[in-house]
Prior knowledge:
The protein is mostly helical and 376 residues long. It has helices at 3-8, 13-31, 34-42, 60-66, 70-83, 91-118, 130-137, 142-152, 155-159, 161-164, 171-179, 186-205, 207-213, 216-219, 221-229, 235-238, 240-267, 274-278, 289-303, 308-349, 370-375, and strands spanning 359-361, 364-366.
Amino acid sequence: xxxxxxxxxxxxxxxxxxxxxxxxxxxxxxxxxxxxxxxxxxxxxxxxxxxxxxxxxxxxxxxxxxxxxxxxxxxxxxxxxxxxxxxxxxxxxxxxxxxxxxxxxxxxxxxxxxxxxxxxxxxxxxxxxxxxxxxxxxxxxxxxxxxxxxxxxxxxxxxxxxxxxxxxxxxxxxxxxxxxxxxxxxxxxxxxxxxxxxxxxxxxxxxxxxxxxxxxxxxxxxxxxxxxxxxxxxxxxxxxxxxxxxxxxxxxxxxxxxxxxxxxxxxxxxxxxxxxxxxxxxxxxxxxxxxxxxxxxxxxxxxxxxxxxxxxxxxxxxxxxxxxxxxxxxxxxxxxxxxxxxxxxxxxxxxxxxxxxxxxxxxxxxxxxxxxxxxx
Length: 376
């Protein structure tokens, strides 16, 4: 039936489609339709504390996987992501990776800090929060970056992905919140980041472990996406403010992080700007970042480092931020390929071929022209 192919035609489909499916079922549950509840009651489903019957709360393995598994699966996902963080890359690839990662991070951080300074950091204009902005703008879609640079860029562009992998998941977002003064104790950081650290250690110590864990990067995504959606209501997506906020984040991410990446490449003497545009996206896995931050906050509440009031506010913000990040993921997944294609056409008119690469001849570095490279 080609279900997987159909899902992957949607930008960020393996993340977005299961998330929307989970949100749809949860929305039906929250409507408490009599016919649905009577059917579940007839099957012997146990009622919730409020006396309702819901699809996603039927108990057993089904509830544990489809409703209550988000944090466990996200932790497993982060463990697998960490195992793929191999920093032993070539010099030029290392340089590009550092430039892209740093510009994306500091741009997202600056926008988030400015927003929190000017507006309410919890519920500013269009329902935007500092959490949503930083989580979306500091995470890029590594898969799309690899695909775009693989087709339109050169080897060092693709190699930069090894450094860009650092901005996958909640790491940079948690660091950013710490810089913004959010009261998260050290143990909150450790509790969330430990899976990444252990995975990174094992993956670099043994290449076979890295290879073994590699499928976990993609295999866990649709499962935790569905579970995240199972905690959301489609009303969040249909809310005009939430939709507008998600689109604003997408535009800021594409224009500002891509633009700053281009400036950094230009200052570093690079001629092709395919890579900065290819990374100017919001990662599908960034949708899981608010939940990871909430998990860290729960630790902070337990230690008394965060007030119960702030934690309740964060619980309110997380579903909205998750919806906005989802919207940004879809939108930037459309903007980045278009931007890369347009940049490639512009560069070719100027005689710059994005796939051309510096080469080494003897002990001297010589840069061949694009035409020479193509002719060879």
